[in-house]
Amino acid sequence: MDLISFSVPGNLLLMGEYTILEEKGLGLAIAINKRAFFSFKKSDSWRFFSKKKEIDDFSLIENRSDFVFKMFAYLSQNCFFNLENFAYDVYIDTSNFFFNDGTKKGFGSSAVVAIGIVCGLFLIHNATNVVEKGEIFKYCLEAYRHSQGGIGSGYDIATSIFGGVIEFEGGFNPKCRQLGAVEFNDFYLMQGLQAIKTTRSICEYNKHRNSILDFILKCNLEMKKLVLNASNSKSALISSLRRAKELGLAIGEAIGVSAALPSSFDHLLGQCDLIKALGAGNETFLVYRPNIEAFNLSKIIPIVLENEGIKFESDKC
Description:
The radius of gyration is 19 Å and the shape is globular. The two termini are 17 Å apart. The protein folds into 2 domains: 187 residues, Ribosomal Protein S5, domain 2, CATH 3.30.230; 116 residues, GHMP kinase, C-terminal domain (Alpha-Beta Plaits, 2-Layer Sandwich), CATH 3.30.70. By secondary structure, it is α+β, with helices and mostly antiparallel strands. InterPro entries: GHMP_kinase_N_dom (IPR006204), Ribosomal_Su5_D2-typ_SF (IPR020568), Ribsml_uS5_D2-typ_fold_subgr (IPR014721). It holds the Pfam family GHMP_kinases_N. This is Putative phosphomevalonate kinase. One of its GO terms (molecular function) is ATP binding. Keywords: Kinase, Transferase.
């Protein structure tokens, strides 16, 4: 194959940010309509090019410690052998995932890049145009965890591979289930004040876990009920999100990673029906039915559900 082009949607974890780190802990995630685009073009050597801002052109990735090279090295040594028999220029366009100042929008860009690398290598190595999503998930989870020092639930990988609304069950061998139609409108994503590294939050959780184990187990049981209830109706989803917010605040306080709205944003509490931190920390917030005039429009993004996961594209890179 001389040219392979496909795209991968972003993802958001709506609830279960710590429960999915536990065996059989449940979370609820969605794929969104902001996509990253990948093109593998036959060449005489393996090279990787990246575009992270709409105003940029593609640039060659030369730093061998870059995440892309970590993924490629692991996959070529452990999953897809004899890649030296092939060679491609790989173009990775994640400009939909970054503001023009380079700040991440919070759509799961690292997981999406990992999926893109795995999917391309899978198609090339197997000389196929069939996207075996289950196999790609398995390879991607293994390589992604390795590149992240063994950390990662895999919810973001599963959600972007399969698309739609995903009920995710955490653990060493995680599982996911694509739910039916869920009404998801009037939701927005809002940026917090500063970036929070997910790996740091997970480390803090693991450090405090044993000392608050009873509390964690109670939270997990309640979160499971919330996730299972959320897909029943729009009102059930909102009710579950409200309670999940309370659980997230309590866990964040217990481990020292705040999920609270910064005090400088307090004036927004009366300007929407719900504000809930997403993920581990308070880097991004889910906002439901906001008074748009009260919000900074450069930092609030409409969320549109994407029902399709990986899909082939005409060459966009």
